[in-house]
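Data availability (excerpt). The following record was deposited with the supplementary files.
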Amino acid sequence: MKRSSRLLVILLAVLMALPVFAADKPVSIFLLISGSLGDKGFNDSAKAGLDMIKAKYGDKVTTKYTELGADTAKYAPSLEDAGDSGYSIVFCSNNFNSAVSEVAARYPNTLYVMYDGWISGDIANVHSIMYKNSEAGYLAGALAGIMTQTKGDSKLNAENVIGFIGGRDITGINDFLVGYISGAQKVDPAVKVIFNYVNSFTDTAKAKDQALLQVGTYKADVIYHAAGRAGLGLFDAAVETGKYAIGVDTDQAALFGNEPAKSSLILTSTTKRVDLTLAGVADKVIAGTKLGGQKVYLGVADGVIAYAGFNKAVPAAVQKQLAAVIADIKAGKAKIPSAFTMTADEINKLRDSVNAAK
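Predicted structure:
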């Protein structure tokens, strides 16, 4: 082969390896939301990620979202419509697991990105993202366990009981709970936990009633929720009782900046940066990275699970203890169980071992 021909081959190979971004064909991204926006947590964070992508890339991307509510019959048709429309990327939560398994392979030119869960099996054009929710629970448990022992705060009592409110008694929510129990026991082996499930991710009134019960009957003085929009009822109960709460997924205290009675009682939130995750996926796809068929597991060490800012009720000494907790997780020293690797009997045994209602 002549030298000029060899150079041409090399040049073509280099050009093929570069990310191609055709100006006349922007990357199209569709976010499908199970439930609705306004949860001040998980779904709102996903929408924030879509907004981040649009703000960064402008006309180089087109973005769209739709809220599908709780009607699971809409999930598969919506995924099909996105594939038929030729979307480059479709974002959806783990609630779409069955629908993605059914639909994705028929649209190989669309990358389906499922976050907060792994797809069953391997599909070449599906990218699955699992969060280490047990690590988020562990962070909340460590804070609650330390705070319930703290002296000199009139909002705390001597009962050594903390609370948890989950959306449903399912593996994804129990992942938060088993982490919460483990984190609390790490700092306070004698701690008791009262827990309830709303059996809904939208029923704020029921979540509020459960929080009032946890405080009034079982003397919980710090309560953590993993209940979506329903969990907002916890903050209403905190105002009525003067007890502390811990938010989830986003900095929920910041969302109540115009309601200081609420924000002052939210010690912090465990953040799950769905926004950063989705924006990161878009960055990789636009750069030419192939993500189909991959499954990733993200947590504290990846910067997507963390504490939001602490309010002034959390003493500096406590914040220092929590910094050590984070360091241990990053170093792999913390032994954090996950509901995804536990049997139902093991989860029940752990809950029973700390249950304040027994």
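Summary of structural features: The chain has a mean pLDDT of 91.
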